[in-house]
Amino acid sequence: MDERPRLALWLAVALGAGVLVYFAWPSEPSPAARWLAPPLSLLALWIGARRPLAGLLLGLMAAAVMGFALASWQAGRMAPLQEPPRTATILTGEVAEVELLPEGRRVTLRAAHFGTGPEEERLVRVRLKAADPARPEPGDRLKVRAMVRPPGAPTHPGGWDFQRAAYFSGLGGSGYALGMAEVAPGEARPLFAGLRASIEQRVATALPGSTGAIAAALITGGQSAIPAGDLTAMRDSGLAHLLSVSGLHIVAVMGLAFTLVRCGFAFAMRLPGKTIAAVAALAVGAGYLLLSGAQVPMQRSFAMAAFTTLALLAGRRALSLRVLALAAATVIVVQPAALLGASFQMSFAAVLALVAGWEWLRPRLPKASRRAAWQRRAALALFGVVATSVLAGLATMPFALHHFGRVQLYGVVANAVAVPITSLLVMPSALAAVLLMPFGLEGLALAPMGWGVEAILGVARLVAAWPGAALAVQPIPAWGLALCAFGLLWLCLWRTGWRLAGIPLLAMGLLSGAVDRPPDLLVSGDGRLIGLRAGEALFLQRQSGAAAFIRDDWQRRQGGGSIEALPREGEMAEGVLRCRTGACALRPDPAGPEAVLLRGEAPQAACASAAVVVSSEPVRGACLAQVVDRFAVWRDGPHAIWLDRDGAQVVSDRAWRGNRPWVPPVPSPQGLASTAPVAAVE
Questions:
Q1: Angle at Cα 356 formed by Cα 354 and Cα 360, nearest 5°?
Q2: What are phi and psi of 141, to 5 degrees?
Q3: What is the pLDDT of residue 679?
Q4: Separation of alpha carbons 300 and 298, rounded Å
Q5: Which of 230, 261, 383, 569 would bridge with 277, disulfide CB 3.0–4.6 Å?
Q6: Average pLDDT over residues 298-327
């Protein structure tokens, strides 16, 4: 079997690899690197005309350079991050988006002003008070007294970079209102943002509570109004993907639009009904993309739907790995930073496994006689539901392990029930409701949609309550995820026997969490939370104002192990951690170095004997040991410390991320007084 046609699929992989290299670069590369891709691409085309294989290999290099250049160009064109005022301020701006919450609303403002300051280039997101009677809509002018913080740093070195995500999304700060908002009508209302807010409000009115919140999410993609308990149930049961507007949703919408238009032109023999229906379906899909906020799964789904439609019109095979590669390349070109997110990774991994699995299985299916055709279709449909859930679950498992540290065990069962309900009842009702809204008759369609949503929610709650429904495990590190991703690509993109070499790569990546050692000490960016790992437990020193979000993320990083308060005195984990009045000493290896956490004791003794001295307050005077104190975290962010037999390794967040546009500069001395946690302000 010839593998040469498959080589072209790796161009999209090389494009993504170039993006990853840019983000892994220790410092911001020179802008001149952006101009290497065009000449290299032309050289690859020139050589490829004479030596196809050599040209394709050079093309892979050109694609990687192109990905690097695209990421660099996107970073260079973004507005710089600016620090909002450190105290309460009067915030004014134009409402760009309104999100419903379980209690209250959250608004995103553009062209915002802090007090009498200049216009902000970035968006500002503010949560209004739950009792605020204001009902702002996109396009309105809003004024409110608020506390706004810049995007938070990672909870620990190597953690998810909130500042990088905010930098590429255009967000400049988020916070909460301290008073009631004043709203003035705007001159013009954004079409899709206003339509999205109107649909969510009308759905919530017709279907109150969790049912309406989930129904609105299935139409618009906004999940902010779903109560935390139900969102957790959807996640733990393996049904959270239904809340993300993606392939299942756009196939239902575009398929129904295609069918209706095609039926409308059934008697117009001289008109190309199929072509007109395909164009209409694409237009409806594009409108749905914009209505849902153009989230990454929707970008992937619409790109695949568009390429599939074009392939059908050209008489080519519709669903193929080539279409998926084109869709992935399109999303990367439009939004390179999306490659780093769980949404992009899990979405494309699931579809890659499904397309490759069907490609492998199709020629192996037994032929059926005409009499047994309906039986074969029924068996295939049942098998397809189960196989789809299994394949998608296995393909997305490494990414779920890396980003969330959780594995859903009963997702196949939950999806076998919920997906048919979504496809056959919920989504057709949703489309009918949207079409009936201009006439005020959406209640006719929202009622059956609500029945379907309640059934899905019931399945989610039932399955999530089963023992071990969602297991917390040690997250796999970035290098383990890279092994898994490459192994999955190798297994799915090739056709011959050597594709099986991807299986051991996948296995090594999945097992990487077992050999990746968590830090022995963690210090938050404000010094209010300090964790010491002893045995299977993480002992915390927690001061007033410490963020619960950081504590929960540390627990996830530990693989869901227990978290306990640091005692005043005593020994833990067979003497690994010893506490006395004024200090705690941590020594994981009896022959290794020791770290001391000061809790009021003078630093002289610790500085003379310990390898690392940790304190939530400034450590004054000279110290022979490495010091991680209030000054260190204020200057360089969260710290992680490993105590090995060869010595202590201290890594700060600033050293981990390097000098990048989304990493704030070293703060000025007056900023020391304002180090409140901001990672979970939204």
A1: 115
A2: -100, 130
A3: 38
A4: 5
A5: 261
A6: 78
